[in-house]
Specification:
Strand order of the largest sheet: 1-2
Shape: globular
Order of helices and strands: HHEEHHHHEEHHH
Mean pLDDT: 86
CATH topology of the largest domain: Arc Repressor Mutant, subunit A
Low-confidence stretches: none
CATH class of the largest domain: Mainly Alpha
Radius of gyration: 18 Å
Length: about 160
């Protein structure tokens, strides 16, 4: 967002306010303002996706299996998260599921944890947000778990051996 503010010769606060106004103007028009980490993008709104797919003759995205959805949900709610933490929450190995999600561009390595072996930390991608019609990474947790109860339980599972 800093680069956008600098290019527009605005303060960060004024840039944020302008983006908020643009977001309000775009509401219900088939286009959505998506914020992800330090970037902003205009993307197709989920309700307009079928029409865009037909127009461009695009195939729908492949369906996700239950293990992939479980893994994706854990990553989305607990990000950044290690594979071992995902395994602990799910109770089974998530190595293959994470590899598939990374290959499909829905999950990415976002850093490295401190400690022995410096394991990879996983988080969701911008493509994940676009695929599921979410405005931001924060919207994931707010939609799936508005009161935070599931996140608290997952964090408990994450830290118990």
């Amino acid at each position: 967002m800093g680069r956008l503010a600098q290019a527009a010769q605005l303060s960060l606060e004024d840039t944020q306010a302008a983006l908020d106004r643009l977001e309000a103007v775009l509401a219900g028009r088939g286009v959505r303002l998506q914020r992800f980490r330090d970037t902003v993008a205009l993307v197709t709104a989920p309700e307009a996706a079928p029409a865009v797919r037909r127009f461009f003759e695009l195939e729908p995205p492949p369906k996700l299996s239950r293990p992939l959805l479980e893994t994706l949900a854990v990553v989305a709610l607990l990000q950044p998260v290690t594979r071992a933490e995902v395994d602990r929450v799910r109770g089974v190995s998530s190595e293959r599921a994470l590899a598939v999600l990374v290959a499909r561009g829905l999950v990415e390595v976002v850093g490295w944890a401190e400690g022995p072996g410096r394991p990879a930390l996983y988080g969701v991608t911008r493509q994940f947000l676009e695929t599921f019609g979410l405005e931001s990474a924060e919207a994931v947790a707010n939609r799936l778990d508005p009161e935070g109860m599931l996140r608290r339980r997952l964090r408990e599972l994450r830290t118990t051996a």
